[in-house]
Fold each of these.
Amino acid sequence: MVRDITLGQYMPGNSIIHRLDARSKIMLLIAYIVFIFVAGNYVSLLLMTLSSLLIVMLTRIKFMMYLKSMKVILFVVIFTGILNIFYGTGNVLWEWQFIHITDGGLSNALFVTIRIATLVMVSSILTFTTSPSDLTDALEKIMKPLTVFHVKVHEIAMMMTIALRFIPVLLEEADKIMNAQKARGADMESGGVIKRIKALIPVLIPLFVSSFRRATDLAMAMECRCYNGGNGRTRMKQLKFTVVDLVGLLFCIVIFTGVILCNIYFKSVMI
Amino acid sequence: MAVIKAENIGLVYGAGTSFEKTALSEVSFEIEKGEFIGIIGHTGSGKSTLVQLLNGLLKPTDGRIYLNGKDIWEEPKKIRNVRFKVGMVFQYPEYQLFDETVYKDISYGPKNMGLSEDEIDERVKKAAEFTGLKKELLDKSPFDLSGGEKRRVAIAGVVAMNPEVLILDEPTAGLDPLGRDALLSQIRDYHDANKNTVILVSHSMEDIARVADRILVMDHGKKIMLDTPKNVFSKGRELEKTGLRVPQVTKIMMLLKEKGIPVNQDILTIEQAFNEIINYLGSKAEG
């Protein structure tokens, strides 16, 4: 059930994308997302989609996994797609009372659907190829300048690491407690919404209690190992920019320039 | 007639995927009404999986399980009734407590069974008495109790459902020796007083030898033997192959016998060993 969700799951490997520095991956992802929205017509969007497909191939992770991660947000994609059908101008193709479908609307719907699908795909590339600890390390490095504004960057990164680390633990714990309450005759599979929510109380309370217990234990263990925040802390695995990162940067610059050029020379789709 | 009968049961997790793992295969046995069964095996031998199959929390991928002669998965919608009849106390059950007072927490199971208020009240009080919980604790919050008391509350919560078969998965894990002895005697007393079937899962030979009528030995998801403690421990070599040991006192008696001292080696507890050695020394002094 919960375990089947692949969105944001690290898959170890040794592809060229895996070897990219986590910092460049994050920065390039942000740039990529911006340019997916900058792309204003089919030609430039196609350029973005095809180049992301190329990167997907380079990760050497089964395409099935990407499709699975898209399944989770399939509803959002379909919903925005359908909504866009009704908002558009141009030649009316079909009309019923206040609803009218235009060729512009259909085109908008298709455009938005491709856009979102590409968006999810590139985001999956980051989470599939970067281990959670690299990811939070990189975020900490990237956010470092914010310390000027008294943002507790290290603390935020540490909280994220711990939260990610404990997701599977909590899932397992929830499973255990659910079984224990089922053994005492808890009925979580039938009844209305209210009844089902009430049936969850015997699971949620022990789960909360044990989360707090774990938090206390972890804090104690960290203090015993003399953890006192990020000041003066060094890392065993240093993040390093390499030639691969340079190649990645150049690749993206080429694609982004292409998108801008296509935007200038072709007509915009969204009306 | 056997209360529980397992017929060639097996369980494969994630069948057909790359995570496929056989947890249990071709296990068959019969447990008679009123028996005290001990299940033993080292970590990962499938003993916890086995007991979760017995009360319908897991569904076997092979074979059948009968409760009083009826296949428990015959009507999957009524599996809750099986769980009422086969009560299950999980490992570290104190982490499942949730209600405001000890009394309410113990009454959760009976309430789910749809019993009347009076009946629930009677059962809660009886269960609390069986597990040695003092009356004044019943109105306290379960979160204010000590670890040992919490565990008693959790066990009482299952005992209050008055199950025909009571399964306890490592009930003494993490308790101090005194607490462990007390809990084991209480479980044995409960069994003797109610004449119901009890299944105790443990990896401590000492614990099981003290209380069980028959011992089921598990290894790598398979049944190795099901026999009386004496017979099981007489096959010491076979046990050692599965990574288990006979109880320390039994081992000492075996070694004494090997040294040529004529003592009985079917000894399971320290008291028995003590008496046996005293007898031997007495006869030696006379002779």
Note: The longest helix of chain A spans residues 193-224.
Amino acid sequence: MREDEARRALDRANALGDRVRGGGRWLALYCAVFGVGTLSVVLTTGMASHGPLRTAVMAVFGLMVLVLVVWAATRPVSPRRFGWLHTAMILGWAVLYSVALLVGRNFFPGEPAWWVPMAVATALPPWALTVYTLRTAGRQR
Amino acid sequence: MRHPRSRLDETIHSPVRFSVMAALAAADQAEFRFVRDAVEVSDSALSKQVSVLENAGYVKVGKFAVGRRTRTSLSLTSEGRAAFQAHVRALREIAEGTGAAAPDDA
């Protein structure tokens, strides 16, 4: 194999890698939507003064998660390290979500100074993965 | 010192198989149809080359149901990923001095 043939093979591999990584960009949208959903549900859970609104928002959030899971399972490309990244994101979200609800319901019911920052905090893990995905899976040369 | 040509993997060296390996190296898993379109080959040509890679232990083929359809997923085994990285290292050494960038494996 000559030098120019090796160079062409490497260029081809780079181009294919870019195309496949681009196919994994769906993860950015998945995480962005999940972040908006969790922000909404934490805010409503903490601030809503009556049960039916909370129940409705929780139901919509549950349905949204179900749709996201099915949609993710049918994507043609699983980004590199998807399993690890997704698990880390969900674990981070679960910890923040649990703290927000357990502490907030007991000590800060209806208190915006607690619920607004905690709602944003629960959205940070998925939004961080959105940024990471756009910087890596969506990278184009 | 041996020339890097001697370290090229004969199984990966074929243009279509090299392309399949390069595509799969950039993902954890990809559908057969996606790889076919990315590599720009026919179903039968891809099937044939994937069989060679599967028999070499470089590619894992999976089947999963989506509704009533069965889809085929392709992924690199850890052995396949290591073999592709070694192959790319040899290519890079051959191309050294020409300014070619090595493909990302992440």
Note: Residues 82-107 of chain A form the longest helix (26 residues).
